[in-house]
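subagent[fold] <- orchestrator: predict structure for attached chain, return tokens only, no commentary.
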Amino acid sequence: MESKVHRFFNKIRSKIVAKKLAFYFEQLIIITTGLLIAFWVENLRENKNEDRATKQILVNIKQDIIAITDTELGVAQVLDTFFVKKIDAAIDDIGDCKIDDVDLLYTVASFHISTNYPENSGFESLKSSGLMTNIEDDTLLMAFSGIFDFSFENAVDGAWEKSSDNILGVIYEAEGIAVLPMEEGKYKLVATKPIILSGARCTRLKIHLMEFRVLMQESVVRLKYNANAKKTWFDRLEREIKRK
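subagent[fold] -> orchestrator:
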């Protein structure tokens, strides 16, 4: 009799335990599912925020590229339509080995270009944001590095300075040249008498001017090439922006 009662209570106890285990298991599934859904929603929200931030940075990069392209094309136009003509005029001026226009020659020799490159704030933001992995088109990242690491001014200043020094060196050697001080530490060259160059100096000056002219023309080609190369990336950049 006691054994039957014991078995009876064991069955009841087993059913209660089974029900509790089922209840705990259901609760565990509900809690786990809720956590997974919450994690998925939070992850989706973070991805959207990252996409939104990346899109804005890419828009800024596009604006920076447009500004740089406009700057390069503008400088190329100035060099091609203005400065090269001044060099040609200086070469013509010393055609008979006589310097008639010292100001023109000095203007050519002391010419310095300031491109005033726009700040590449968009690309700098991208590098510091940790969002570079959010760019699907890897070739864009390579293009950005080439676009924004290039500095036309740094690339040609050394060559320009050498050509300028060569031209000024010949001028300073000529008799009848005086330095006239001006305000703010500036000065200009003036001729105190007709300046006639010796055959060797005349030839040397013409060669330096021709070298300078070639350098200007190469600079124009480089500027136009870089500007046009940037434009080829606009379509890819637009596609990347639309993905965000």
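orchestrator: received. Logging for downstream: The chain has a mean pLDDT of 77. Helices lie at 2-93, 102-109, 121-129, 138-149, 152-173, 199-231, 234-243.
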